[in-house]
Amino acid sequence: MSVHTELKKITTETLRKMKFDKVKITMLTAYDFTTAKMVDAGGVDSILIGDSAANVMAGFDTTLPITLDQMIYHTQCVVRGVERALIVADLPFGTYQSNSEKALESAVRMMKEGGAHAIKIEGGIEIEKSIRKIVNAGIPVMGHLGLTPQSIYQFGTYKVRAKEDAEAEKLMSDAKLLEELGCFALVLEKIPADLAKKVSESISIPTIGIGAGPDCDGQVLVYHDMVGMNKGFSPKFLRRYLDLYTEITGAVSQYVKDVKNADFPNQNESY
Hints:
TIM Barrel; 41% helix; globular
């Protein structure tokens, strides 16, 4: 067991040290108290309250509809279930892109009301002023480059990003900029593994990959995908560690059968 898994509290500095010590960083999403408690107990280093809550919790096709108030609510729920992991919360679409004052206001609300330890936002040079404003206020910022789901209508597809030289060069430039601006870590989503390796080796802050190969400093997956609660989502990068969809629907079916057959509750389950 790594010494890092025995620490009581994971901080942004812990993640930086893990990169320096070449200890891989683990991150999973959570959106509620019960899940957060289990994920934290499992020893994950960081928990992300992702705007993917729009998909897996609310049933939307994209991450765009979720509001700041809703993200704050999910963050509050997660915070109450976590003792050890670093808690990072996404700022949702529309809460930081338009101007830096609004970005800071959104980040402050997420920290004060939500209780997050850090925030995550998508983009590079386009949101430089927002990142600078938030970091200067003392709020830790995790960047996010590559496939940025909040820009899905601009991309028009969820395919791998930065395969062409021009986009790869911009991503590398943006990664170095985010480091210079004071971001403490960087998510790299769905980019070629060799590019992710190059980025990870060229900056001093940790990179956390999702569909970005094995050479990032850490990995993140959506909890619901990792435990197999989503049947219809099977990207190449996803490894399912459980098949909870089958397990849970099977358990529900058995419960229905037992009640219909008057087998539940039995005498031992009655007062």
